[in-house]
Amino acid sequence: MKNRPNYTGMLLLLLTLTVMPFLSGCGDFWQAPSGSTTSTIVLTAASATPTVGVADLLTATVSPSAATGTITFYSGTTSIGTGTLSSGTATLSYTFKAAGTVSVTAKYSGDTTYASSTSSAVSIDPGSVASTASTTTLALSTTTAAENANMILTATVSPSAATGSVTFYNGSSFLGTGPVTLASGTATLVTSFASTGTETIKADYGGDTTYLASNSSSATLTIDPIGTTASSISLSSSTNSTSTGTQITFTAVVTPAAATGTVTFSDGTTILGTVALSADSASVSTDSANFTTSFSTAATHNVTAVYNGDPTYASSSSNSLPISVN
Questions:
Q1: The pLDDT of residue 34
Q2: Where are the domains of the chain?
Q3: For domain 135-224, which CATH number applies: 3.30.230.30, 2.60.40.10, 2.40.440.10, 2.40.240.10?
Q4: Is the confidence at residue 171, as pLDDT, over 70?
Q5: Which of 207-216, 242-251, 286-295 ranks highest by mean pLDDT?
Q6: Are 247 and 238 within 8 A, CB to CB?
Q7: What average pLDDT score do residues 83-94 get?
Q8: Residue 20 has pLDDT above 60, yes or no
Q9: What are the φ and ψ backbone dihedral angles of 53, each rounded to 5 degrees?
Q10: 51 alpha-carbon distance from chain centroid
């Protein structure tokens, strides 16, 4: 009996030779496609003229803010780092190592809903190298705070002639809305923390054309659940009638005296400032916070004070105090 050709084997061989080259060149064919909803990305730099060797903060903002995924930052065609989106924003602290203008862009990777996108280029021109050392120290208004209670971070840069900005971090996460500009060697940030636990806070000075960048030591902050014991707060002012540009002092008094933490002063919905409580020497039953400011517009300004609470005492709000500004 004659041997019949192995048609099954020949067919399998033919399929292998035909299909495999196609599959090997189409690796992307098997990847999940990115979303079809259009996204846009905007890139900004803390400084368009940073000093060589001094960190510059790059911020990429993606719209819609619901987009998730990663951002890759480029200097020309070279990747210089990545950042993960959080509420539509990703940042990268990058140090340019040579003088000369560079073109920086940011590319969004896309996710299952939103398509990828690339920012317009931002021109960065690093300048001369700084040579004088600086030091940065960090102080917290409290090392134990209640959840969602406002607290004050203060960075002090020495020498005080240093200019530029300070960036505050919780671990590797950026705090605030952007770098805080130095004023007489000091930068402050009012912030709060929504989750209980231990946080690690630090401050990074970015340097300028004279002073090198420097980083503070890390400070440990404990966030406890906010207390349930009632507190009360009253508000008074040095005057109820003033003129534009003239300073006025507000005093918030918190009871009981054991209360710790901060008081936030507001003009309507606009926060004026946050001040740490200090013991009131005039009365052992209260704590107080003094805040001095001025108003630039002529109107009636309704000022309130909110005690932000601590791990023992609940927050409380003062009466609204109308201030007539002429």
A1: 64
A2: 40-124, 135-224, 232-325
A3: 2.60.40.10
A4: yes
A5: 242-251
A6: no
A7: 92
A8: no
A9: 85, 0
A10: 22
Q: How far apart, in whole angstroms, are the C-alpha atoms of residue 241 and residue 258?
A: 33
Pick from 32-36, 86-90, 292-296: least confident: 32-36
Predicted confidence band of residue 210 (pLDDT cuts 50, 70, 90): confident
The domain made up of 232-325 has a fold known as Immunoglobulin-like (2.60.40)
| CATH architecture of the domain with range 40-124 | Sandwich (2.60)
- The model's pTM is 0.62
Instruction: Give the C-alpha separation, 39 to 33, whole Å.
Output: 15
